[in-house]
């Protein structure tokens, strides 16, 4: 039965820092990723479709709010990570069980995103008929028990089976009855629910309904907390002052290029707590040289020590990759041997940079740009 006592939807833009569990943090972060109607609705010209977009926005907010308050009713693994850690710190457990902890994170993430995936699939495959959406019965025969449980849980927020015709299922929304045209329009993009389109769907970016809209750095920085956003813009402005060009071709990453070379990335992903991560490039795939001893040697001893602590050679591989993958290349940085993965990238990484990290990040950006200039000048001299 629908949950008649659902309280007012949660405000996902408030500054929460403590959560009952990692799962709650993930649900909240997911909610922060939903773009406000004030940023997206003006792009929709049709009045009826605008009303539908507002209804869909209200439904998803209600769903995530109720999911946050009653995760067990949505069949979510509430304390999965905490039970796996058994009182140890996450850092300790990651070091001991890198593969297993990655699976735990995936279970939590997939449990939440599965609901948006189901809504996207219903929108993409369904046919809107008035205040209902109709799908062939065979669609639900193929979805399995997990989606059956999800559909049952969605009854709590008024997403229910309506009267069905032969060989068809239809759904209604008691509170947000006009949501289905927007659900169908947002999901029914070219190539269906491919990764980039699905991220636009989960963000409820209605600018993509009638046109293809490319997100800006403002869109990517918006879901961050006030302090995170302040640091992101500080680095963004620093990059612009140094003649870098921002690019948002990779979802949730703003990349900065100087003279066509990648210098820095600012990521604003939302795995288990909305965060910002910064990587300053020391060596990109196409670079012949690495920003290592020659440029770091003139810095202070403390700077060099911290550079080594933040340096990573693995781009997207799993935690154990660098120590086990035979195809990695070895280089020596400031007298210490370091392994790069097959991507052949060296970066200096910060997860949630603090105010005290900003000076070092900026200096590494300058070093990278100086190196790019030197290489280009050397090429000119040879010609």
Summarize the structure.
By secondary structure, the chain is an alpha+beta fold. 46% of the residues lie in helices and 15% in strands.
What would you call the shape? elongated
Strand content: 15-25%
Main-sheet strand order equals 5-6-7-8-12-9
**Overall pLDDT score:** 84
What structural class should be given to the helix and strand makeup?
A: alpha+beta
CA(first)-CA(last) distance = 77 Å
Describe the structure.
With 383 residues, the chain is α+β, with helices and mostly antiparallel strands. Helices cover 46% and strands 15% of the residues. The protein has 16 helices and twelve strands. It has helices spanning 22-32, 37-40, 47-69, 80-85, 90-96, 98-125, 137-141, 144-154, 180-187, 195-202, 217-221, 226-241, 293-296, 301-310, 321-324, 358-382; strands spanning 127-129, 132-136, 159-161, 168-173, 245-247, 253-258, 261-267, 277-283, 311-312, 329-333, 336-340, 346-351. Strands 5-6-7-8-12-9 form a six-stranded antiparallel beta sheet. The chain has a four-stranded antiparallel beta sheet with strand order 1-2-4-3. It is elongated, with a radius of gyration of 24 Å. Mean pLDDT is 84; it is low at 190-195 and 315-327.
